[in-house]
Amino acid sequence: MSMSSKLTLAASFIVSGAIIGYVHLKQTTDREKLHEGVVRDVERQQRRKMENTYVLQKQIDLTKQLKQLQQQSQEGDVNTGQ
């Protein structure tokens, strides 16, 4: 085998190995990015759930306050004879 054919064969092995290595590295990084996206989505859902729970509790408190005000208003109407 001539020297140029040996160099060509070696170069093709090196290039093929580099391409295969790059593809595996790219797949690994893509998989990690996808997993990070899932983790962020779960965190976002938990944060929204906590926010919704907070808003719901606030609404419950406001409803209680409104009922108390209505009762006080009705009691005031009864006491004043209206």
Automatic annotation (TrEMBL):
Coiled coil: none annotated. The keyword Mitochondrion applies. Pfam families: PET117. It comes from the Eukaryota. InterPro entries: Pet117. It is found in: Mitochondrion. Keywords: Mitochondrion, Transit peptide. Signal peptide: none annotated. GO terms for cellular component: mitochondrion. GO terms for biological process: mitochondrial respiratory chain complex IV assembly. Its main location: mitochondrion. Belongs to the PET117 family. PANTHER family: PROTEIN PET117 HOMOLOG, MITOCHONDRIAL. This is Protein PET117 homolog, mitochondrial.
